[in-house]
């Protein structure tokens, strides 16, 4: 599949997991999130999404809709949304009311990305939902119910989302498999793939989405986004050093150990064994780590192979200033001022 899409004409956005840094508090994380969003707006990023995760000491974005309001209130033009709301954890009406409220407060700036995973472990999912029966299987029906609340009210409709009805907030379907890809295609909705941590089915899911796409009032042509990890710095060596925080975060994922984000280390050799290193590297296949020149070249190859319309960036970098710089470098690469 050949594409002529260039980074300069590709929308770039940010996925913020609102990391809790070792030695710091969630309050510090929220301040960093707003600061990053304000910089992202200035640098020309398209949207700023936060993800719903629960029972994770290193991630502070559990109350996602509240944080969306916090960021939207502290910015002026950038789109703010969820990447995503894990719909099985919530009644569709509650989501419609929350995002209807957000859209009413910040009109034309709110995105609603939906996922069908729990965003946590089995025990915590039970604590969230009280009942796991049919949680994933009901996703298509729940999506349609949610969309009905955000559509104009119909005659005789007994349950209404106020605020929410008639606002037609942009809905995205998110996924790491072909399930949501096909559903997004059938419904004519934009689709975002979680290739920043589940890269295996990226190309398959994109093909399924494009092949199954049916034009709708929302979209006339398919619109696909892919998530990637980015650690950009002045040199390859500095970027590789900063990326050790990313590696340690994912090492904890595969070990099932929950920790706050750790500062970078000089070497990972004594942190993991060969099988763990391989597992982490497989999860982080679409990670772009290096100098502006390195990042630019590798990102263009990614665009050439996927043809995605938008790239959503997440940067697991411990130092806030270095994290800001990573996003600034990408913005400058897109503008053609460096790299």
Task: Tell me what the structure shows.
The protein has 339 residues and is α/β, with parallel strands linked by helices. It has one domain: TIM Barrel, CATH 3.20.20. 42% of the residues lie in helices and 15% in strands. It is built from 12 helices and 9 strands. Strands 1-2-3-4-5-6-7-9 form an 8-stranded parallel beta barrel, surrounded by 7 helices. Helix 3 links the parallel strand 3 and strand 4. Helix 9 packs across helix 10. The protein is globular, with a radius of gyration of 19 Å. The relative contact order is 0.15.
Compute the average pLDDT.
94
Architecture per CATH nomenclature, i.e. the level-2 architecture = Alpha-Beta Barrel
Sheet of most strands: 8 strands, parallel, barrel
- Total strand segments: 9
The strand line-up of the biggest sheet is: 1-2-3-4-5-6-7-9
Going by CATH, the homologous superfamily would be Luciferase-like domain
In terms of per-residue confidence, which ranges show pLDDT below 50 for 5 or more consecutive residues? none
For this structure, the quaternary state is single chain
Gyration radius over CA = 19 Å
Number of domains: 1
Helix content: 40-55%
How much strand?
5-15%
**What is the overall number of helices?**
12
Distance between the termini: 26 Å
Category from helices, strands and their pairing: alpha/beta
The sequence of SSEs as H and E is: EHEHEHEHHEHEHEHHHEHEH
InterPro entries: Bact_Lucif_Oxidored (IPR050766), CmoO-like (IPR019949), Luciferase-like_dom (IPR011251), Luciferase-like_sf (IPR036661)
Organism: Pontibacter fetidus
Protein name: Luciferase-like monooxygenase
GO molecular function: oxidoreductase activity, acting on paired donors, with incorporation or reduction of molecular oxygen
């Amino acid at each position: 599949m050949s594409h002529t899409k260039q980074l300069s004409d590709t929308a770039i956005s940010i996925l913020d997991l609102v990391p809790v840094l070792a030695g710091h508090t969630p309050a510090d994380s929220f301040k960093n999130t707003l600061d990053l969003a304000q910089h992202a707006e200035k640098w020309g990023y398209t949207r700023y999404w936060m993800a719903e995760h629960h029972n994770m000491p290193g991630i502070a974005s559990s109350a996602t809709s509240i944080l969306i309001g916090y960021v939207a209130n502290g910015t002026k033009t950038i789109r703010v949304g969820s990447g995503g709301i894990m719909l099985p954890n919530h009644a569709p009406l509650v989501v419609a009311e929350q995002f209807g409220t957000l859209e009413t407060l910040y009109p034309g700036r709110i995105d609603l990305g939906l996922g069908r995973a729990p965003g946590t472990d089995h025990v915590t999912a039970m604590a969230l939902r009280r009942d796991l029966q049919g949680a994933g299987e009901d996703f298509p029906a729940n999506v349609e119910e949610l969309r009905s609340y955000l559509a104009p009210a119909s005659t005789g409709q007994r349950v209404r989302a106020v605020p929410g009805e008639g606002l037609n907030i942009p809905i995205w379907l998110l996924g790491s498999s072909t399930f949501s890809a096909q559903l997004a295609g059938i419904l004519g909705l934009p689709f975002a793939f979680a290739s920043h941590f589940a890269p295996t089915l990226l190309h398959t899911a994109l093909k399924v989405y494009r092949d199954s796409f049916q034009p709708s009032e929302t979209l006339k042509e398919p619109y696909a986004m892919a998530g990637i990890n980015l650690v950009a710095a002045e040199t390859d060596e500095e970027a590789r050093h900063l990326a050790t925080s990313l590696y340690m975060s994912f090492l904890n994922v595969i070990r099932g150990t929950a920790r706050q984000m750790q500062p970078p280390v000089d070497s990972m050799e004594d942190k993991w064994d060969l099988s763990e290193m391989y597992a982490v590297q497989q999860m982080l296949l679409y990670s772009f780590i290096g100098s502006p020149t390195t990042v630019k070249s590798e990102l263009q190859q990614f665009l050439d192979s996927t043809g995605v319309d938008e790239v959503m960036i997440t940067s697991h970098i411990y130092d806030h200033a270095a994290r800001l710089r990573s996003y600034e470098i990408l913005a400058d690469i897109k503008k053609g001022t460096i790299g």
